[in-house]
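Raw record, unedited: DUF6316 domain-containing protein
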Amino acid sequence: MEMQQRAGEQGSVPFRSNRFFCVGNKWYFTTREGFDSGPFASRERAEQGLRRFLQVVQMLPEEKRLH
């Protein structure tokens, strides 16, 4: 898998781990800030949850966003 730089990144691309993990039959996603969200019934649902989370974060004023 080819890693691409995100907006604002410079230099080599840092290591990124998978945002999704499974405990028992329940799926979760994690953020860079260490926030875990779930449980979700499937990985697909966890992916949808992450997309919704990112949409909400994008609507926040810059000073309120998690860094």
